[in-house]
Amino acid sequence: MYPRITLVVFTLCVSCSLSAQVSSEQRWTDKNDAEQYAAYMIQIAYNELGYMSAKVDVKRNAEEEVFIVNPGPVFHFKDIRIVGLPGNFAGKMMNNAPKTGEVYSQARINDWLAEGSQQLAAGSIVQKFAGQEVRLDRATATTTVTVLFK
Considering the domain 76-149, what is its CATH architecture? Predict the structure, then answer.
């Protein structure tokens, strides 16, 4: 019984590995992975500077890879909303919130939320940070951020 099961498993493994192979021109390599990762990191850097529509392409010529960046418009904060906090604590948090017109930055939001969490802990507030929602309006290059507490 076990030799038959072993034969079936072996045959299945070999057939799966053969069907998964692709031509040498289309296979993923470490070099391709490194290029795509570098393009991703460049895009993340542009996003952190407010270029939320940034696109990075990799073009290869005979000797080198060239990263072509289309940054798009700079996004700005349009509105910040806090949901789930009592009014007086939400007002205190909004004092240090990113202002309308400021260049959008996730790091700015993270710093603001960390500071706000300390204020809440000092005020013995039991609400916990539950998440955030960022809506991008590509037509006007603005963002609306909603911060949720529960």
Answer: Roll (3.10)
Task: Tell which wins on pLDDT, 74 or 125.
Answer: 74
Sequence ranges of the domains in the chain:
27-72, 76-149
Cα gap 36→69, rounded to integer Å: 13
Q: Count CA atoms within 13 Å of residue 3 on its CB side.
A: 0
Per the document, the length of the chain is 150
- Whole-angstrom Cα distance, residue 55 to residue 43? 6
Answer yes or no: pTM beyond 0.85.
Answer: no
Identify the residue with better confidence: 111 or 11. 111
Adjacency order of strands within the sheet including 129-137: 76-83, 142-149, 129-137
State the angle between helix axes of 30-48 and 106-122 in degrees (0 to 180), rounded to the nearest 10.
60
Side-chain-side CA neighbours of 38 within 13 Å: the count stands at 14
Q: What is the pLDDT at residue 29? A: 56
